[in-house]
Amino acid sequence: MRPLRYSINVTLDGCCHHEAGLPPDEESMRYWTAEMERADALLFGRVTYKMMESAWRKPATGTWPDWMDEWQIPFAETIDRAKKYVVSSTLSGVDWNADLVRGDLEQAVQRLKQESGEGLWVGGVTLPLALADLGLIDEYEFLVQPVLAGHGPTLLAGLRERIQLELVDRHEFRSGAVAQRYRPTRVTA
Description:
This protein is an alpha/beta fold. Helix content is 26%, strand content 25%. The chain has helices spanning 26-37, 46-56, 73-81, 105-114, 126-133; strands spanning 4-11, 41-45, 83-87, 98-101, 120-122, 139-145, 165-172, 178-184. It has an eight-stranded mixed beta sheet. Strand 7 (165-172) and strand 8 (178-184) form a beta hairpin.
């Protein structure tokens, strides 16, 4: 059974808007590239899929855009070629090496987790909240940015029940950001 990993950038005050933290730098992009490479497939909700596709899909010309720095290309290539699953009840279809996931979310994700492999990666805000509420996330990774945003969506806002986590890894960046990886502790009755 492959684990489902949730990874996201978050500010010190819990904001998880994609533009609230520090701009990506070479070190953080290398880190995120390695994280994407650990996954057999990416799981997105509609909004995250569209956002990632607009930023990281290789143009039809076959050439990456001029705005992209050389150190961003390995991340772009990794996410561009990755297998993707998109959870949406409103999209009629997807491409970009993606399959549409419909129906019962818990059953669909359980099926994906049952497949052999190294793991699934999920990002975003809304879908991970639903997956956390269902107890389907096996690992949480927060890249905590040394920023106080003071606004925006907050991490897992609306979670139905408290989830106790155990720290399993930590990595400090030169920027002051800290990646913290946690696993839920399993409470036995």
